[in-house]
């Protein structure tokens, strides 16, 4: 086991700069998730870390060893691929033991380790099968087994759950977390799914267009997003954004004027409020809306409504937010579209962002 | 959707007709080999000889050097296949995996050799082989066939390598293989169906050659290939078509055997289970 130090790593494809000055210190045994939309550079960073792509510049240390120019096999890392990448011509046992064989380990020791790992992952009865005879979940376990059998210094995982169905994904997510707690190997996990990131990570690195947006633990990311992108990316449904104005330290929103506890200066701001921070009925700041759409999820309802004069232009262009603002209401009675509804929120729950820099206003 | 009996019967009838059309020349070759010369010439022709002349095969095998010619054909074909496969595996893999400036144009340029008629290359190849002292040697055929085979097999293999997920090699490299090790330990075993199909294609192309053998081996009877040898069985005044047909059956047998042997490798789907 070892910590990982990524220092000013960048990657260019010709004139295209896909990864910009990426720096990250990962502690020994830490579970770090790189998350972001497609094309944000997270998989590129993972491949550079694995040695499968050369970095255009920068330095990578695993433990105290500079691995920047080492071949993947010399970095003492293991990787789980999005599509598992099991060797189809080998049995499950041979797949798991392949890395050990490449390192010249005696056959008896390989067999012992393969069986031990197979027992942990409950695939011992599948050792003689070929990958094509396995279900998706079983293939996933074998891919994990191939990684852990080598007892590497770090695990790299590239969206390992994205090919599983929703139920199995939740189950395997918990299994990977439990496995990490059990063996405690430093793990760098890439996903585009913010729920995976939030539920599994010790720390989350949010990326966009090759640039780190914020590095923080899940609770901090949710409670104190560094900018508009992070605020919108974390949380489901995403944060509501509105345009508003601060005058004399007071904010006017939904026709209500109230003091903001944030240290924002007077002028235009983008206001963010999470759907779950809007409540049904009277509260600190109360306003009335007419729902344009009500989605019932059984235990809760998503109530969409028009932001009126507080509409934020960028939000309207977003496919999800284009439907209007969302209130996530639990345990409500029947709510009908078009009927007037009273909502409220606590002013301390709102987030303010600078319209020019899109950075959070503290 | 469930097929009705009539649809099934129609399907099988259609397949029987297609198979009949495809197999008739082979059947006719066999019947001719077993017929007497009089039966061959009779009108209307007989679809099965009254007294099958099995001795024709023994006669051809003993009185003609058909076995030597077959051996020469085998050597030339195996040499061509080996040379072509070695070159095209690396070339096809490179075209599939490495993007270098002008790589695609270079790949297409390789195909230009395939666009020229084989006979057009005979004269320059003859000049080259003569200067190398290869005229009359089976090596001339090996090299000449390789020039025809490699462009096509390179692209066949490139197409096959394209279907193999890159993650397999990446996983092998993370597991400790060098890039070349990943090719030999993972990619090539997975590509067995593609390699088998390509090797078969190369073998058949070399086996079926007549023009190059006729040009490069004319004065060296001991190195004649079967196709070249059979043409010398046609006499100036009399032609024993039954013997020629028997020799042609001998020439067909190795190809049929190779097809039967490689058939299990030709069935695709080995990569099933590698992903998702």
UniProtKB/TrEMBL annotation, chain A:
GO terms for biological process: carbohydrate transport. One of its GO terms (molecular function) is ATP binding. CDD domains: ABC_MalK_N. InterPro entries: AAA+_ATPase, ABC_transporter-like_ATP-bd, ABC_transporter-like_CS, ABC_transpr_MalK-like, ABC_transpr_MalK/UgpC-like, Mo/tungstate-bd_C_term_dom, NA-bd_OB-fold, OB_MalK-like. This is Glycerol-3-phosphate ABC transporter ATP-binding protein. It is found in: Cell inner membrane. Belongs to the ABC transporter superfamily. Keywords: ATP-binding, Nucleotide-binding, Sugar transport, Transport. The keyword Cell membrane does not apply. Transmembrane segments: none annotated. It comes from Sinorhizobium medicae. One of its GO terms (cellular component) is ATP-binding cassette (ABC) transporter complex, substrate-binding subunit-containing. Gene3D superfamilies: 2.40.50.100, Nucleic acid-binding proteins, P-loop containing nucleotide triphosphate hydrolases. Residues 4-234 form the ABC transporter domain. The keyword Nucleotide-binding applies. NCBIfam families: PRK11650.1 (NF008653). The gene is ycjV. It is a peripheral membrane protein.
UniProtKB/TrEMBL annotation, chain B:
InterPro entries: BP-dep_ABC_trans_perm (IPR050901), MetI-like (IPR000515), MetI-like_sf (IPR035906). Pfam families: BPD_transp_1. The chain crosses the membrane at residues 12-38, 69-93, 105-126, 138-161, 182-204, 244-262. It is found in: Cell membrane. It is a multi-pass membrane protein. One of its GO terms (cellular component) is plasma membrane. GO terms for biological process: transmembrane transport. Its main location: membrane. SUPFAM superfamilies: MetI-like. Residues 70-262 form the ABC transmembrane type-1 domain. Keywords: Cell membrane, Membrane, Transmembrane, Transmembrane helix, Transport. It comes from the Bacteria. Belongs to the binding-protein-dependent transport system permease family. This is ABC transporter permease.
């Amino acid at each position: 086991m070892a910590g990982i130090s990524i220092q000013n790593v960048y990657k260019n494809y010709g004139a295209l700069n896909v990864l910009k000055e990426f720096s990250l210190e990962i502690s020994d045994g830490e579970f770090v998730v790189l998350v972001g939309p497609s094309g944000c550079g997270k998989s590129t960073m993972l491949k550079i870390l694995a040695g499968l792509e050369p970095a255009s510049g920068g330095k990578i240390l695993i433990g105290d060893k500079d691995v920047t120019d080492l071949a993947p096999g010399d970095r003492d890392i293991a990787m789980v691929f999005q599509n598992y990448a099991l060797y189809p011509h080998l049995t499950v046992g041979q797949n798991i033991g392949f890395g050990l064989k490449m390192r010249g380990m005696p056959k008896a020791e390989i067999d012992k380790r393969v069986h031990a790992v197979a027992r942990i992952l409950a695939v011992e009865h599948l050792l003689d099968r070929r990958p094509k005879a396995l279900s998706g979940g079983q293939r996933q376990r074998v891919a994990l087994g191939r990684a852990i059998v080598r007892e590497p210094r770090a695990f790299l995982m590239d969206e390992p759950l994205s090919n599983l169905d929703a139920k199995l994904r939740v189950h395997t997510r918990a299994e990977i977390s439990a496995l990490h707690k059990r063996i405690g190997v430093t793990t760098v996990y890439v996903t585009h799914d913010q729920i995976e990131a939030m539920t599994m990570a010790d720390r989350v690195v949010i990326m966009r267009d090759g640039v780190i947006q914020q590095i923080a633990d899940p609770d901090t990311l949710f409670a104190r997003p560094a900018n508009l992108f992070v605020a919108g990316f974390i949380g489901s449904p995403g944060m509501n954004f509105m345009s508003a104005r601060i005058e004399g330290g007071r904010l006017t929103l939904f026709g209500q004027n109230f003091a903001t506890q944030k240290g924002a200066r007077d002028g235009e701001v983008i206001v963010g409020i999470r759907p779950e921070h809007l409540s049904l009925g009277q509260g600190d700041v109360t306003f009335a809306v007419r729902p344009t759409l009500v989605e019932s999820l059984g235990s809760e309802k998503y109530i969409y409504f028009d932001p009126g004069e507080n509409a934020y232009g960028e939000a309207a262009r977003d496919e999800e937010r284009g439907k209007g603002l969302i209130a996530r209401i639990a345990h409500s009675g029947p709510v009908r579209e078009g009927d007037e509804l009273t909502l409220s929120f606590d002013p301390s729950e709102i987030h303010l962002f600078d319209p020019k820099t899109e950075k959070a206003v503290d | 959707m469930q097929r009705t009996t009539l649809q099934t019967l129609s399907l099988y009838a259609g397949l029987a007709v297609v198979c009949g059309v495809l197999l008739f020349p082979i059947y006719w070759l066999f019947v001719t080999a077993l017929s007497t010369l009089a039966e061959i010439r009779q009108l209307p022709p007989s679809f099965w000889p009254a007294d099958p002349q099995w001795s024709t095969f023994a006669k051809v095998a003993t009185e003609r050097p058909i076995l030597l010619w077959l051996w020469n054909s085998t050597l030339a074909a195996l040499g061509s296949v080996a040379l072509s496969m070695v070159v095209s595996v690396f070339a096809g893999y490179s075209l599939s995996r490495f993007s270098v400036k002008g790589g695609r144009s270079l790949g297409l340029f390789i195909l230009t050799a395939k666009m020229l008629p084989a006979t057009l290359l005979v004269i320059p190849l003859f000049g080259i082989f003569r200067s190398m002292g290869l005229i009359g040697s089976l090596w001339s055929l090996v090299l000449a066939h390789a020039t025809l085979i490699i462009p096509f097999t390179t692209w066949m293999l490139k197409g096959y390598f394209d279907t193999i997920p890159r993650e397999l090699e990446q996983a092998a490299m993370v597991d400790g293989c060098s890039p070349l090790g990943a090719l030999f330990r993972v990619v090539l075993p997975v590509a067995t169906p593609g390699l088998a199909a390509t090797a078969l294609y190369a073998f058949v192309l070399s086996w079926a050659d007549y023009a190059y053998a006729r040009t490069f081996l004319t004065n060296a009877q001991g190195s004649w290939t079967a196709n070249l040898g059979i043409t010398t069985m046609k006499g100036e005044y009399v032609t024993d078509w039954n013997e020629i047909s028997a020799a042609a059956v001998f020439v067909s047998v190795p190809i049929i055997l190779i097809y039967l042997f490689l058939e299990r490798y030709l069935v695709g789907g080995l990569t099933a289970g590698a992903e998702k």
